């Protein structure tokens, strides 16, 4: 029998080797990588599966805050580093590790669990649903229609180049404001800021220093930050054809978002901009006079959510309109299923167990996709993924649950 348990310090090297094997990376683990792992691994929340003493599967979780619709942070069990060695696949090891972790999360009182899925078909069976999506664009700069004489924001705001140390000081507070206004966003710890500004480079991944630029409003308030790197590419006719790759763009106002995209697309020599993973309804393509200059290069599900406590999750978010809806939530794993009446208004919401007749029956997985405001119950009903017990209930759910801007998680974990 393969033993699944939390790690002891002596297991970390073997666990890291198994992790690298599962992710098809170099399985030889150097001292530097080991020290890096040890610096943040919470062994109480790091699981390994051991067969004859050798680690053959990995799983880790950590505490996270996820922004609900309306800006409140909810406690999440963030899951990462999930692997099962190819020698031990399809014997139920992931299922056993997931059950152990979700049991512990439920016991702790976490409202949801979250993850970024490597492959779409893996996590639905554990009650996770895709809750945010992401889009990458490639911008053909000469086609944007931007005025080549542009020299900074017209509104009187300003853009300044800063360095990594400045970003470590300014960035965390800016991000706190961003996540309070962006449902689907998650918190970033100090390690995130160090890792993303070169102060804590990931072993085996050579760091290249990017450019950092901030946007300040006319009154001097910091409202945005863009991080980008550029290549060095000239054609045979001695014309610059450089590509800027955006590593991140955090904006807390539309003015900052517009100005920073305009800035990146106006840098001399840059003829192409790769945007990185953006919100699917980013202002991006439409900030240009010719939005067709931006071509979608990928569009996919991003953050997956597993609701562990329906009452707390539904009461944590806000609702644009008012109304009442009885949901029959099916949760085969038994964490949070049942029938609930959701009563919502602009001042707040209550979600209480009820014996009233259900209007909509759905798996906890579909509720997760609806919870962050992105999915449409009408569409899910058309797909046979939710059942209307009362005609019109799906449309009523959409009126209650959907949001005018889409959820977005800017980070990967
Ligand atoms: C949050 C993250 O870390 S995402 C990263 C996930 N890791 C990877 O993708 C690395 C490569 N893949 C792996 O390591 C493994 O294949 C894992 C972890 C995805 C699955 O591990 P396994 O131990 O094989 O899963 P397990 O045997 O518990 O499977 C449970 C069920 O999921 C299904 N399943 C597992 N992986 C997949 C997959 N990639 N695609 C489709 N179905 C899958 C199994 O067939 C099984 O179905 P069943 O319940 O109908 O029998």
Automatic annotation (TrEMBL):
<feature type="active site" description="Proton donor">
    <location>
        <position position="123"/>
    </location>
</feature>
<keyword id="KW-0012">Acyltransferase</keyword>
<dbReference type="GO" id="GO:0030649">
    <property type="term" value="P:aminoglycoside antibiotic catabolic process"/>
</dbReference>
<feature type="binding site">
    <location>
        <begin position="90"/>
        <end position="95"/>
    </location>
    <ligand>
        <name>acetyl-CoA</name>
    </ligand>
</feature>
<dbReference type="InterPro" id="IPR051554">
    <property type="entry name" value="Acetyltransferase_Eis"/>
</dbReference>
<dbReference type="InterPro" id="IPR036527">
    <property type="entry name" value="SCP2_sterol-bd_dom_sf"/>
</dbReference>
<comment type="similarity">
    <text>Belongs to the acetyltransferase Eis family.</text>
</comment>
<dbReference type="InterPro" id="IPR016181">
    <property type="entry name" value="Acyl_CoA_acyltransferase"/>
</dbReference>
<protein>
    <submittedName>
        <fullName>Predicted acetyltransferase</fullName>
    </submittedName>
</protein>
<dbReference type="InterPro" id="IPR025559">
    <property type="entry name" value="Eis_dom"/>
</dbReference>
<dbReference type="InterPro" id="IPR041380">
    <property type="entry name" value="Acetyltransf_17"/>
</dbReference>
<dbReference type="InterPro" id="IPR022902">
    <property type="entry name" value="NAcTrfase_Eis"/>
</dbReference>
<feature type="domain" description="N-acetyltransferase">
    <location>
        <begin position="2"/>
        <end position="153"/>
    </location>
</feature>
<dbReference type="InterPro" id="IPR000182">
    <property type="entry name" value="GNAT_dom"/>
</dbReference>
<comment type="subunit">
    <text>Homohexamer; trimer of dimers.</text>
</comment>
<dbReference type="GO" id="GO:0034069">
    <property type="term" value="F:aminoglycoside N-acetyltransferase activity"/>
</dbReference>
<dbReference type="Pfam" id="PF17668">
    <property type="entry name" value="Acetyltransf_17"/>
</dbReference>
<feature type="active site" description="Proton acceptor; via carboxylate">
    <location>
        <position position="413"/>
    </location>
</feature>
<keyword id="KW-0808">Transferase</keyword>
<dbReference type="Pfam" id="PF13527">
    <property type="entry name" value="Acetyltransf_9"/>
</dbReference>
<dbReference type="Pfam" id="PF13530">
    <property type="entry name" value="SCP2_2"/>
</dbReference>
<feature type="binding site">
    <location>
        <begin position="82"/>
        <end position="84"/>
    </location>
    <ligand>
        <name>acetyl-CoA</name>
    </ligand>
</feature>
């Amino acid at each position: 029998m393969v033993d699944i348990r939390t790690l002891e310090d002596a297991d970390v090297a073997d666990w890291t080797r198994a992790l690298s094997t599962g992710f098809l990376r170099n399985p030889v683990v150097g001292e530097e990588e080991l020290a890096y792992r040890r610096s943040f691994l919470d062994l109480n929340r790091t699981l390994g599966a051991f067969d004859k003493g050798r680690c053959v599967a990995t799983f880790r979780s950590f505490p996270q805050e996820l922004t609900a619709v309306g800006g409140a942070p909810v406690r999440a069990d963030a899951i990462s580093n999930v692997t099962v060695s190819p020698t031990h696949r399809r014997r139920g090891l992931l299922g056993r590790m997931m059950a152990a972790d979700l049991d512990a999360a439920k016991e702790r009182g976490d409202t949801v669990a979250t993850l970024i899925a490597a492959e779409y078909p893996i996590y639905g069976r554990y009650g996770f649903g895709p809750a945010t999506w992401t889009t990458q664009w490639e911008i053909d700069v000469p086609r944007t229609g931007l005025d080549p004489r542009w020299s900074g924001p017209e509104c009187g705001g300003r853009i300044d180049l800063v360095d990594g140390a400045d970003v470590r000081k300014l960035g965390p507070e800016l991000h706190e404001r961003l996540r309070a206004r962006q449902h689907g966003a998650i918190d970033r710890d100090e390690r995130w800021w160090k890792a993303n500004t070169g102060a804590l480079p990931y072993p085996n991944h050579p760091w290249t220093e990017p450019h950092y630029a901030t946007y300040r409003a006319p009154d001097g308030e910091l409202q945005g930050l863009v991080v980008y790197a550029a290549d060095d590419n000239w054609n045979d006719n001695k014309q610059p054809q450089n590509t800027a790759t955006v590593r991140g763009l955090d904006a807390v106002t539309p003015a900052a978002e517009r100005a920073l995209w305009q800035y990146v697309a106006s840098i001399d020599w840059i003829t192409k901009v790769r945007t990185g993973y953006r919100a699917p309804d980013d202002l991006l393509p439409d900030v240009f006079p010719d939005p067709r200059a931006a071509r979608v290069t990928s569009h996919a599900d991003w953050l997956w959510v597993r609701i562990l406590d329906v009452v707390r999750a539904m009461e944590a978010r806000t609702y644009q309109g008012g109304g009442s809806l009885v949901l029959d939530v099916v949760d085969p794993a038994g964490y949070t299923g049942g029938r609930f009446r959701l009563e919502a208004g602009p001042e707040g919401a209550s979600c209480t167990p009820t014996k009233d007749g259900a209007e909509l029956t759905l798996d906890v997985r579909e509720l997760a996709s609806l919870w962050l405001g992105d999915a449409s119950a009408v569409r899910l009903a058309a797909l046979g993924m939710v059942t209307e017990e009362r005609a019109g209930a799906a449309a009523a759910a959409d009126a209650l649950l959907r949001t005018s801007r889409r959820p977005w998680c800017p980070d990967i974990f």
